[in-house]
Structures are given as structure tokens and as C-alpha cells.
Design goal:
This protein has 400 residues and is of the alpha/beta class. It is 36% helix and 25% strand. An eight-stranded mixed beta sheet has the order 3-6-2-1-9-11-12-10, with helices on both faces. A six-stranded antiparallel beta sheet has the order 14-15-13-16-18-17. The chain is globular, with a radius of gyration of 22 Å.
Length: 400
């Protein structure tokens, strides 16, 4: 008997018919003899609808109250799935994040897991039941309900898989797996059948939506096989694991962010900006410092609920020593992508050939990020995908 953790996204649970289909899939898997922990997101656009109601009532809703509100969506999904399994004579029990022993810091809206004590989950499994877990949420050490930010149900699933010593964690959504680019922009985007943890983390942080970056970090630390698959499909999807074969072109995939804010601080205010970032527990896309001490920081609004408040705070602290500009961000991801400058040089040449100007470059061991005009972002993604992923002989998958 294997212990498997599954996660179903909101699109897989968007209505009662889809929820019934998930119940059928869970029942079939349990009939094969596996122990199952199933993590669920809120149904369809439930979270967005709740957020819209909150903002209609309060222009700046308190983050603690947002967590109380937004966490209800996943609880509804968990209870309904448990009911659907009961109708199929499959014993199941729903649990909230706090009941699962997920302890977080006291930051609301985008909390981080600091400890996981899955005793209750183990007790329910020992009784022969399927455990249905409300994803995206936990409880702070102050005993407040907290939520884990966008994609937080992925983090719930992988953290539970790590704590329980599961054989694998399967993430189900409305796409086939991890693709070489956003298929809404690139119709020729290809399935990546195997990818390494660091590359997957970089893709997620750079804008790919299939897996959450923090979830991949949990999987890497625990050495858990992580699968991304389409709900209702029998296809293998994408496997995230250690040391996959390298892609032929050196580029595993391309991710993008439609809106990346570049914060530039003069040297005289750089230390203050870093202190504010630490105090606010910000998660920047990149940080770089020039030889003269000036600081560049890339930030996305998605992970900063109080973005305008943050900008106002920095203006009060630094005045005109700080400037903000909005860009599109395109990232090429691949292991060893900076072993030499050929990939960067080729990318810049391809974009120059189409009169696309680059406003900035940021790099890591697995990533090259280019800042450009948001209006030219989609064109740039297509050009570089064709130039790097669709080159003759290139294989974004395993090479098998």
C-alpha cells in the first residue's frame, strides 16, 4: 500500500459535475489499495468572488479578516468532496488546515509554513479513511487563521506529502502539465515530461502558473516525486525530480510576467529600502546592487496586497531617491544557462532583429530575465520560444 497525496485545483472542482468526477477518480484510486490524502482548492472562481465582495465593502480590507473570509472556499470544497465520496461508500473525512497541524508565521494573506504536525491526518488514515484537506490555509502560532497566498494549495499538498513521508504528490489542474511556454500565447508550447527542482522553481517564480515555487522547494528538500497532470486524463504529465536529462537547446522553458515593477533606489537610501523589505517580508523577483551602491529590486503586485501603501511608505522614507517603473518580464530557464554568454547574446540579437528594446537584464544560475515594454511582451515570448525551444533537435522533455 502506497501513501499518495493528491491536489485538485479550482478548475477541477468548478461545479458539482466536476466534483463528482474527482470523487470517482479518488474512489478508483483507493480501490487500487492506495492510502490517499486529497488537498482541494476553492471551487472555480470562488476565491476571486469572495475577494471582490470584500473589496466592495472595504477599499482596504484588513488582512486578518481576508484570511477568515478566503479560507472558507477550500472548506466548502473539502466538505462537498467528502460527501460525494460518502455517496460512493468510500469512507472519508474533511479537515481544515489547522486541524491538519499546519502552523504558519503570523503574516496574513501570504503566510509561510513554519511547522507541520500531521497527527490528526495520521489518525484518520489509520481508520482506513480518505483524508480531504482544505488547502491554502493554516493557523498561526497566535492561533489565527492564515492563508498561504496564490497557489497555496500546492504548498499544502507538498508540505503534507513531506511530513507524512508520502511516495508521491500529484498536482491536478486544467492543463496537461508544465509546458515550455504559456499555451495561451504560444500555440506550439510543448509538454515538459521531466524537469529538475531548481528549473521548476525558477519557472514558477518567473510566472509559470502550473506549480507553486514554495511547493517545489518543499518537494526538493524532502526528495518527493512531484507530478503535474490534467484532471480526468490518464497521461503521465510532468515529473519534477532530481537530475533530469538536459534539453538540447539549453533552455527548458520560457515564463513571463505581464507586470513587474522595477524599484530603483539611490545608494543613500538602499539600506532603508532593504530594511523595509525585510520588515514587510517581501519576496522580490530579483535584487541587484550596482558598483555605486544603487539598488534595483523587481517586485510583482500579486504577492503584495498593500502595494500602494508600500510605495507610500518608501516615498516617506526616501522621497525622490526612489523611482518605480513598470515592465514586462520574460525569463529563459535552463540548467547551466549562464555557463557562457551565448544564450544571452542570441536572445538579445533575436529581439533586436524585431526592434524589441531591452530595458534591463537579471540573471541567476538557471535563469535569464529580460525587462521590456509590456506591449511587446507577447511577441517577444513567441520569438524566443521559436528560437530556443523549437530549434531543430531541441527536446524540452526527457530525451527518451
Amino acid at each position: 500500500m502506497s501513501l499518495i497525496v493528491q491536489k485538485y485545483g479550482g478548475s477541477s472542482l468548478a461545479d458539482l459535475d466536476k466534483l463528482r468526477a474527482v470523487a470517482d477518480k479518488v474512489a478508483q484510486r483507493r480501490a487500487r489499495g492506495d492510502e490517499l490524502v486529497v488537498v482541494v482548492s476553492a471551487m472555480g472562481s470562488n476565491t476571486d468572488e469572495l475577494l471582490a465582495m470584500a473589496q466592495a465593502l472595504s477599499p482596504r480590507p484588513p488582512r486578518r479578516e481576508l484570511d477568515m473570509l478566503l479560507s472558507t472556499g477550500e472548506r466548502i470544497s473539502a466538505a462537498l468532496l467528502a460527501l460525494a465520496l460518502a455517496a460512493r461508500e468510500v469512507p472519508a473525512q474533511s479537515l481544515t488546515g489547522s486541524q491538519c497541524g499546519i502552523i504558519t508565521n503570523d503574516r496574513h494573506v501570504d503566510a509561510r509554513i513554519i511547522e507541520l504536525r500531521p497527527v490528526r491526518v495520521q489518525d484518520v488514515l489509520a481508520k482506513g479513511r480518505v483524508v480531504i484537506v482544505a488547502g491554502f490555509q493554516g493557523m498561526s502560532y497566535r492561533r489565527d487563521v492564515t492563508t498561504l497566498g496564490r497557489g497555496g494549495s500546492d504548498t499544502t499538498a507538498v508540505a503534507l506529502a513531506a511530513a507524512l513521508g508520502a511516495e508521491a504528490c500529484e498536482i491536478y489542474s486544467d492543463v496537461d502539465g508544465v509546458l515550455s511556454a504559456d499555451p495561451r500565447l504560444v500555440t506550439s508550447a510543448q509538454l515538459i515530461d521531466i524537469i529538475g527542482y531548481p528549473e521548476m522553481q525558477e519557472l514558477a517564480q518567473a510566472g509559470a502558473k502550473v506549480l507553486n515555487a514554495e511547493a517545489v522547494e518543499f518537494a526538493k528538500r524532502a526528495g518527493i516525486a512531484l507530478y503535474a497532470r490534467r484532471s480526468g486524463s490518464e497521461e503521465a504529465g510532468t515529473l519534477v525530480r532530481v537530475d533530469p536529462p538536459p534539453p538540447a537547446s539549453g533552455v527548458r522553458g520560457i515564463a513571463h510576467l505581464r507586470s513587474l515593477w522595477l524599484l530603483r533606489a539611490k545608494a543613500s537610501c538602499a539600506d532603508k529600502i532593504l530594511q523595509i523589505m525585510q520588515h514587510q517580508d517581501l519576496r522580490p523577483h530579483f535584487v541587484s546592487q550596482n558598483a555605486d551602491g544603487a539598488l534595483d529590486v523587481g517586485l510583482t503586485r500579486e504577492n503584495i496586497p498593500d502595494f500602494e501603501q508600500l510605495r507610500a511608505l518608501m516615498r516617506r522614507q526616501c522621497g525622490d531617491q526612489v523611482s518605480w517603473t513598470e515592465h514586462g518580464a520574460l525569463s529563459l530557464i535552463g540548467e547551466g544557462i549562464l555557463d557562457d554568454t551565448s544564450t544571452l547574446n542570441q536572445a538579445l540579437a533575436l529581439l533586436r532583429g524585431h526592434s524589441i528594446a531591452i530595458h534591463g537584464v537579471s540573471t541567476s544560475s538557471f535563469r535569464i530575465t529580460l525587462l521590456l515594454d509590456p506591449k511587446q511582451l507577447e511577441q517577444a515570448v513567441r520569438i524566443l520560444h521559436k528560437g530556443f525551444v523549437l530549434v531543430p533537435g531541441a527536446d524540452v522533455g526527457s530525451g527518451a
